[in-house]
Amino acid sequence: MNKVILMGRLTRDPEVRYSQGDSPMAIARYTLAVDRRFTRNNDENTADFISCVAFGKSGEFAEKYLRKGTKIAVTGRIQTGSYTNKDGVKVYTTDVVVEDQEFAESKNSASNAGGGFGGGSTGSANQSAAPVAASDGFMNIPDGIDEELPFN
After folding, report:
1. What is the per-residue DSSP string for 25-53?
2. CA angle 137, 122, 58 (to 5 degrees)
3. Which of 8, 68, 90, 109 is within CB 3.0–4.6 Å of 105 for a Cys-Cys bond?
4. How far does Cα 50 stand from its chain's mean position?
């Protein structure tokens, strides 16, 4: 089984290109900074930088909604490859091929943290008027919905 689950922040805006042909497909590349739980021997690098690539609709979603600093959760698979660069040196690559990506924090949390944007997922990118958390941590219920609630 080849399954990867990551949560981290984009290190820069996604780089998006479109394939050639009759039906061009979006190919988005981005890097996630994923915090490590533990450090070893006073290692100052407490994050791993993971290369991700999203194809098709996921690539279009990344182009439209993801920005530097956005905290997202990604599921996908690891893919390795190699190529020979212009100097004739063989270069080995490891990428996570994105199967699903979702925002991992609310829009308010993202703006308070200094960047990014959240509040949706790849399947539901529209930002409807949802209840907003009050300062006590509970959600405010809009007026006129009382009779729809299973409790009073």
Report:
1. -EEEEEEEEEE-S--STT-S--EEEEEEE
2. 150
3. 109
4. 12
For the record, the structure tokens of 16 come out as 């998006």
What residue spans define the domains of the chain? Answer: 4-148
Q: Domain 4-148 is of which CATH architecture?
A: Beta Barrel (2.40)
Instruction: List the pLDDT tens digit at each of the 152 positions of the chain.
Output: 999 999 999 999 999 999 998 999 999 999 999 998 877 777 676 899 999 999 999 999 999 999 999 999 999 999 999 999 999 999 999 999 999 999 998 877 766 654 444 333 444 333 334 445 555 556 665 665 555 555 54
Burial class from Cβ neighbours inside 10 Å (0-12, 13-18, 19+) for residue 8 reads: buried
